[in-house]
Amino acid sequence: xxETIQWTNEGVVMIDQTKLPHVVTYVTCRDYKEVAEAxxxxxxRGAPAIGVAASMGVAIGFAHFDGGDFRAHLDTVCETLARxxxxxxxxxWAIDRMKKLAxxxxxxxxxxxxxxxxxxAQRVYEEDIAINRQIGxxxxxxxxxxxxxxxxCNAGALATAGYGTALGVIRAAVExxxxxxxxxxxxxxxxxxxRLTAWELQQDGIETTLITDNMAGHFLKxxxxxxxxxxxxxxxxNGDVANKIGTYSVAVLAKENGVPFYVAAPISxxxxxxxxxxxxxxxxxAGAEVTHLFGVHVAPEGIGVANPAFDVTPNRYVTGxxxxxxxxxxxxxxxxxxxxxx
Length: 342
Fold this sequence. Notes:
The chain is α/β, with parallel strands linked by helices. The protein folds into 2 domains: 5-133, Four Helix Bundle (Hemerythrin (Met), subunit A) (Up-down Bundle); 139-339, Rossmann fold, CATH 3.40.50.10470. It is built from 11 helices and 16 strands. It is globular and about 65 Å long.
């Protein structure tokens, strides 16, 4: 399975997802600013993977720290990383986790702090893979045998430290012996489904059919799809889900056609401080992602562009939220709080 990100003596090494599927190449980030730029430019993407990258970013931010104002340096590192992607809550969860550890060790020998931060970042990485396996164990039984699964965007090994959330559910179902195939939405405008999900599943030998985003309704209505499984970047207390733009449309179409719509995400993706999805910040990305396709200008010069990277699916369209602790169902205010240990 693909290695998304790893800590090495040379720096934080991550596969360059902007080059896939045609070129498999790796980027080495040697300081926290390079990690931040890799997150911002989507060299690495997917909420859990962003969280892992952020934890490693904090660790490498102290790897070359030679003294001075400890707290000021910590704030600079954390704020630089936090400014990269506003919607994925795992980013802030990981930064807060690392920051609390660093503050708790303030005044200790610098080498001790550095070692502890590296160890914590590696724990975040290892925990993510284990969590994804648990999500798959809870979600695999929900996938109907002998049917297609529809997924949108990429929530696989590339979006995590390994195995995946939504694709982890699919992988677990296949490992359990179910005969399933996948419809992968292309996911405009960044084409994560076409470039990443299709590539991942092809590597695994899982039968996959690539479709354009506006074909999903056709196949849902035709009865070919047994369920929809997607990832998430932030989930509000009431079960509203922020995920890649276009997810809301798929959820509405699934509901209209009586197809279960599942969200697979770790507990760290929950933001129980937000009462509803109306409060989730939505990242607006550069218009060139819409007007250009692989560097080719495909739209009229000077045309106005809107490019929100995410949308919010209201909880009434969500059949269940699959986490490492179990599957939450409506009423989500109760079930999510219970799974989060509140």
